[in-house]
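Students often ask why we bother encoding 3D structure as a string. The short answer is that it lets us treat folding as translation between two languages. Here is a chain of 126 residues written in the first language.
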Amino acid sequence: MEPIKLTGTSQYPTITLDKDQGIFEFRGNSLPEDAKAFYDPILNWLDEYALNPNPETLVRFKMIYYNTPSSKLLFQIMKRFEKIALQGHKIQVIWMYNEDDIDIKDAGKDLANHIKVPIKLEPYKE
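And here it is in the second language, the structure alphabet:
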């Protein structure tokens, strides 16, 4: 499976999905004009990954800011990981947030309440 490695900008997040290295990361801002078009290849990759996932998957999110269309697609990404977990594979999500950013912390809490995957909220200091 070919990895996805996208370098972030002020509008797009840095995304690394590498099955062989066990790296699953989403970092930065997500403000694409067409969030669906941007995230479709990510969702397709995760659908393929779900067919033969690693025994354990650790996913890190370190989002700074994202718009409403991105939030809906981040939820869909989380649902992909939930599907893998429901198939009996170990999934852990780490939701990192700047300790001063209550909105991103609350977004992580909200996701944790709607996804059947362990989500660990982890503060960091800038």
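Translate back mentally: The longest helix spans residues 68-86. Keep this in mind for the problem set.
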